[in-house]
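Tokens in:
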């Protein structure tokens, strides 16, 4: 299922009828309709299987693939404001959701589409073409995707699959937190109005990431984990980390981003490999709680690194810009008399329905964990 979007893009292109084929088909239909004394004979249809419920979705997909043609394929790279953007949302992404039949697949699609909304903004921000209405619409659509992810996670919890619910929330949290930081980093080089709008969106998304993290903790309370539950959780997180690291290794073999950024992300990959060895030692010795916690941190960082790579590559492929990524060590910053009012003022600019102000007794303030600088290719 992970390549379903590319499969359907290719299918649309492969199955689309040429203008000559369509003209010939139309002529044959019209000729048959006007042929005198046409005798209709009941012949069992070879496609009768399509009317069975199990194949109904496949039939619908075939109609959309053949009928959508190259327009739907071209819409994949459309951005807000483009002519084909409506097709991307109403046809392509609805089809992608329709074929995701398992809860895990549905959650994966929703997280990917939420990221797509944010990556679209990142692309527009890279060329200085962000409008406030675009950001408002992106925030609203991201909220819709998050709501559907929450529904899937709740469904999994009701079915007793806590580890799957944990994985759903973990991927959502990592995606939202990383894109929030990318947007905030991009705001640093924007003009005053665009800077404020990007930071509003970034803080909104970051707040949603915090809520997803809270939901993850509620799904599997750490204090209540027995050994059996801890082992299941550690195993699931171990497998998730291995998949993420495999994708990251594959991506880093590509030279699609600036050499400095590639070097930075490669160093992060090597560091994560070392931490995986430590987590594996916990796992193999039966210390599953420690292993689960270690793998959780590794998976968050691996997911973050993957998103940074994907966002940078997309900007470099579709603009005349390059992205310089610099990772920083996570060092908590103590709240100071200067820092707290600044954050309170920033929070106060937000719609209170979407943002809660920091607590007065909050002991630490979160800091940016990386730099994501977009610049002209020939800039030093």
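Residues out:
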């Amino acid at each position: 299922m992970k390549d379903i979007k590319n499969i359907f893009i290719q299918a649309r292109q492969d199955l689309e009828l040429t203008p000559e084929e369509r003209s010939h088909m139309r002529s044959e239909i019209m000729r048959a309709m006007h042929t005198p004394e046409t005798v209709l004979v009941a012949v069992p249809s070879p496609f009768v299987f399509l009317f069975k419920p199990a194949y109904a979705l496949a039939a619908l997909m075939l109609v959309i693939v053949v009928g959508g043609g190259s327009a739907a394929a071209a819409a994949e790279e459309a951005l807000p404001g483009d002519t084909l953007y409506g097709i991307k949302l109403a046809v392509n992404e609805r089809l992608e959701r329709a074929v995701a039949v398992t809860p895990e697949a549905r959650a994966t699609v929703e997280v990917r589409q939420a990221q797509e909304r944010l990556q679209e903004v990142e692309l527009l921000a890279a060329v200085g073409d962000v409008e406030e209405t675009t950001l408002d619409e992106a925030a609203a659509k991201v909220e819709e995707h998050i709501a559907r992810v929450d529904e899937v996670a709740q469904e999994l919890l009701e079915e007793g699959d806590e580890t799957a619910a944990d994985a759903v929330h973990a991927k959502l949290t990592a995606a939202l937190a990383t894109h929030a930081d990318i947007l905030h980093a991009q705001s640093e080089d924007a003009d005053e109005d665009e800077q404020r709008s990007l930071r509003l969106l970034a803080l909104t998304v970051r707040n949603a990431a915090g809520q997803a993290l809270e939901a993850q903790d509620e799904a599997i309370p750490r204090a209540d984990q027995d050994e059996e539950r801890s082992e299941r959780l550690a195993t699931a997180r171990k497998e998730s980390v291995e998949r993420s690291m495999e994708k990251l290794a594959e991506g880093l073999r590509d030279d699609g981003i600036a050499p400095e950024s590639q070097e930075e992300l490669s160093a992060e990959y090597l560091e994560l490999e070392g931490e995986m060895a430590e987590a594996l030692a916990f796992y193999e010795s039966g210390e599953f709680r420690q292993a689960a916690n270690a793998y959780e941190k590794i998976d968050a960082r691996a997911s973050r690194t993957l998103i940074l790579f994907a966002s940078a590559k997309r900007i470099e492929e579709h603009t005349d810009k390059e992205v310089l990524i610099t990772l920083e060590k996570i060092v908590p910053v103590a709240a100071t008399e200067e820092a707290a009012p600044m954050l309170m003022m920033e929070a106060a600019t937000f719609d209170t329905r979407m943002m809660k102000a920091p607590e007065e007794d909050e002991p630490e303030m979160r800091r940016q964990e990386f730099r994501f600088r977009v610049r002209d290719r020939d800039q030093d």
